[in-house]
Specification:
2 domains, elongated, Arc Repressor Mutant, subunit A, about 140 residues, about 65% helix, two-stranded antiparallel ribbon, mainly alpha
Length: about 140
């Protein structure tokens, strides 16, 4: 009588006899995983582990997006300081408009009602003040403020 073919897979490094169904399912799954990995590489998707080398762990080599870049943070702080200095130079009515609209979150419509002007007038004032602030910021930047 002819010996029946044996189907073997490795489990924890040791060959284990399995049914033909398990054998084919196992290798179909293994091939699918390899295909998915090939597609990831093809499309530039790389695991941090793939970047590991003898001295560096791949995950540690990647920058943390939650940590702000110190140069960007310093630049933002400088811009914030200059903006507050420029706002402080504005006349009181203009400062109040900027404060209400941008710091308190008041709508143009509500601001216009508060000061007794039309919304269109409030919008025109806002645009004029923003232009003035841009000019002040450029001048302050030129003189190192």
């Amino acid at each position: 009588m002819a010996d029946k073919e044996k189907y073997m897979i490795k489990v924890e490094g040791k060959p284990v006899e399995v049914t033909p169904e398990v054998y084919y399912a196992y290798f179909r799954m293994e091939r699918q995983e390899r295909w998915q990995e090939e597609k990831k590489w093809e499309h530039g998707v790389v695991s941090y582990d793939a970047l590991d080398n003898g001295t560096t762990v791949g995950a540690e080599a990647m920058p943390d997006p939650t940590v702000p870049d110190i140069e960007e943070w310093i630049f933002a702080q400088d811009m914030n300081d200059r903006l507050h200095h420029a706002i402080a130079v504005l006349p009181k009515a203009e400062r109040e408009l900027i404060h209400d609209l941008y710091f308190k979150g008041v709508s143009e419509r509500d601001y216009a009602q508060k000061v007794g002007i039309s919304q269109r007038a409030a919008n025109k004032r806002r645009r004029k003040i923003l232009s003035k602030l841009r000019l002040l910021l450029n001048v302050m930047g030129s003189f190192g403020f």
